[in-house]
Amino acid sequence: MIIHIHDTAAKAARALIERILQVVAKQPADQKVNIALSGGSTPALMFRLWAEQYDAQTPWEQIRLFWVDERCVPPTDKESNYGMTRDNLLSKINIPEENVVRIKGENTPEEEARRYEAKIRSMVPEEEGFPAFDIVLLGAGDDGHTSSIFPGQEHLLTTNKAYAVGTHPKTGQQRIALTGMPIIHAQHLIFLLTGKNKAPVLADIIDQNDAGPAAYVGHHALHTVEIYTDKAAAQQA
Length: 237
Ligand code: 6PG
Fold this sequence. Notes:
By secondary structure, the protein is of the alpha/beta class. Helices cover 33% and strands 21% of the residues. The protein binds 6-phosphogluconic acid.
């Protein structure tokens, strides 16, 4: 596990973009790079910086964007992870339409989990029977969740389904979630955690315990795990 602590969230975001570009550059030019993006609010700054400062050096035709999870809402809803990515990144870059594979939050949850899993399995190479993305970009909640795998729904960490329906414990909102097994099969599992409210979950991930879903996938990852964080989350002066 490699931890990159930066002075600010913006510096952590820039370092992460540069790391992603480094991973892409190492792939043969004719090989697509499959990246699964998380939502929430943390990645928005990274997506804006990517569009504004790194668009020209990003080989978008080689990159395929998927989602780690999506709220079961239409893409026009303010809660939509795809919508947040569209507003901060996709609307500002020239990525081929076929390279953006969104989860359709407007569909019936279980049907969409099955549809999206089938789509992923047709596009992403498998390892031990699970889709193995080149990069899975994760956030984590202060309750220890990641993707939309919440405490109390740990069965989603070991299910054979690659995508499943999770439920937000406070709002009851249903979500389509990448499950634990494909997450731990990522070639590069990368957390982006910034701000002081991430300090407890960051500590659990670094501690390599199984305190919650985020810590569990960090602990059980089969390839490289990296954390991009800032001093506020790392509780460093
Ligand atoms: C989501 C995300 C989720 C997110 C965490 C952190 O759909 O909400 O995929 O896993 O990464 O909830 O969210 P914040 O970045 O808003 O703190």
